[in-house]
Amino acid sequence: MPQENYAEQRRLLVEKLSREGYIKSPSIKRAFLKVPRHMFVPPRLRDAAYLDTPLPTLKGQTISAPHMCALMCELLSPRQGDKILEIGTGSGYHAALCAEVVAPSLLGDGLVVTLELEPELARFAWKNLKEAGYGAKVHVIIADGSFTLPLRKAFTRGLVTAACPRDPQNLLEVLLDGSIAVAPVGSYYLQELIVFRKTNGITIKERKGPVLFVPLRGVGTGDGHSHS
Ligand code: SAH
To answer: How many other CB atoms sit within 10 Å of the CB of residue 6?
Structure first.
């Protein structure tokens, strides 16, 4: 399908998500209009990229439905200049949306660091991000984000895009005071989307309703995942 058709499909999707109340703020709307989702799905699925549905990526993993990305982005309320840490890079699409908001031009300090457990997915995401023009503002790291993170406490927003068996304390630890994190927390079959606000050294939690994500794996979840 020609590029201009993708742009038109993207515009229609953004209209639908705005009408349904998922997209609210201008900066997030702008990001959704800009980021080419078709460049973040496997080539054979490109024509389905602007349907509001999750799609398979690699290794049994998925790219979340656009309305879920919109909901999480709005709850995260990123601002220009924020440093976002994402756990679960997947296709790189959500990281690109975040980068559009925190670093709309290549100037400024806004940055997204994203961790992916599966090397194959990390390579897929990195290729997608580079080709779509986000190589300078998104750093993809092959790492297990399920336990203590070897990162400095320097982030202002945190995002987990896989189901956490419990609150992501490891992520909250590397967030500065005043930060916000969004994560699905719960069992394999059902999780709740939670917003964490770190203020004056305490973390306040807000529940935002049931969601369904692929499970977080790795050492910290006790699933015995080996780094193959
Ligand atoms: N945000 C992604 C969708 C993520 S799907 C997107 O926009 O496409 C969840 C991803 O989390 C999968 O790619 C999975 O491999 C990864 N994942 C699972 N456990 C992880 C862990 N412990 N550390 C880092 N990534 C993990």
So the answer is: 18
Pairing between β-strand 111-116 and β-strand 83-87 as defined by DSSP bridges: parallel
> Which amino acid is it at 82?
D
CA 122 – ligand 1 centroid, Å: 9
Q: What is the 24 CA–ligand 1 centroid distance (Å)?
A: 26
Token match 């919109």: residue? 70
Q: Hey, what long-range contacts does 196-200 have (CB within 8 A, 24 or more apart)?
A: 196/158, 196/167, 196/172, 198/172
Look up the pTM and report it.
0.95
Q: Is 87 in the pocket of ligand 1 (CB under 6 A)?
A: yes
Measured distance CA(34)–CA(98) in Å, rounded:
12
State which amino acid sits at residue 76: L
Domain ranges, ordered by start, for the chain: 3-219
Three-state secondary structure along 91-124?
CCHHHHHHHHHHCCCCCCCCEEEEEECCHHHHHH
DSSP annotation of 163 reads B
What is the per-residue pLDDT for 227?
45
Give the whole-angstrom CA distance, residue 32 versus residue 34: 5
The two three-digit tokens of residue 60, written as one number: 């049994």
The CATH number of the domain covering residues in 3-219 = 3.40.50.150
Low-confidence ranges of the chain (pLDDT < 50): 226-228
Q: Is 184 in the pocket of ligand 1 (CB under 6 A)?
A: no
